[in-house]
Amino acid sequence: MGNLCSQGIGGIETYADEKQKNYVRRFSDYWSKKDYLFDEQTIVTLRASFPNELEQQTRFGQQILLGIVRREPEFLKLYKKMGTNPDPAVLQNNSAFIAQAQRYVSTFKMAVFMAEKETFIENQLMAIGKRHREHLPADLPMHFWHSFYSAVLEVIVEKVNENDSLDANEKLIFAKSWENLIDYVVSVVAWAFYCLEPNPQSSRLEPVKKTQKACQPTAGKAEKKPTADNESKKPSDRHSSPENKKPEPKQHKEERREKAIRGH
Questions:
Q1: Who's near 10: CB < 8 A, 6+ residues apart?
Q2: Which UniProt keyword terms apply here (predicted)?
Q3: Is residue 133 one of the residues assigned to a domain?
């Protein structure tokens, strides 16, 4: 595995009392690097390294999930609570587990496709994050995403290393391309966990729109440590005030969106 997974999510340590500020900082940081993440070479390498057959894709997703299950004791408890046998050999033949694996594969296929089309994936990914948050225990998300990130990288690097047609430098490029995309995916979904309205029943899902002034951090600003006062002003709060905790009329949403585009 080398150093690809040794530093945890994105190489940023995540302490329990700082997890929100770290995830928010990472989201802002990767948002500003969109052009680098989705350049032409990255798209080519991502597409070339993704399995084509559905059966291979399902196994790809299963390996990711099995990596999480083996690594994360809390995830095993969750499976037991759901009445599912957490033994990896049993899980591989479990229809719900297979369906979940295929959903993860679809996430990455969608991410590559959206990147190729030069559009953003935050809305779909935040919806995924919201669904997970509704079903996972409150204290599990940070551990889950750390395990998810590491397990995905292990599978990617394993697949890349199996490709004998690549030289050492090409393998590094392939692995790094996937690492960048996965890191971006995880940062966006983690941001959904900690910045969205905490009520799981809420129908409001307002992604942050990328604007030059409102969302893209300036040099040095991303490195600044958030304080207790400004920590509450997460990316999602830039377009909504504390008073706006309930679903709001469409007209109000449009007004806020226009303000965001103008850089307020």
A1: 26, 30, 183, 186, 187
A2: Heme, Iron, Metal-binding, Oxygen transport, Transport
A3: yes
Q: Going from the first residue of the chain to its last (264 residues), give the mean pLDDT of each consecutive group of 10, the final group possibly shorter.
A: 32 46 61 64 76 82 77 67 66 75 74 63 65 62 69 79 82 80 70 55 37 34 41 40 44 55 49
Separation between Cα atoms, residue 78 and residue 83, nearest integer Å? 9
pLDDT at position 207, please?
A: 37
CB count in 10 Å sphere of residue 196: 21
Q: How many helices (H) and strands (E) does the chain have?
A: 12, 0
Is 134 domain-assigned? Answer: yes
**CATH assignment of the domain containing 114:** 1.10.490.10
| Residue 242 falls inside a structural domain | no
CB 71 within 8 A of CB 146: no
**Domains in the chain, number:** 1
Decide if 147 contacts 70 (C-beta within 8 A): no
Whether 147 is covered by a domain: the verdict is yes
Print the domain residue range for 159.
Answer: 9-195
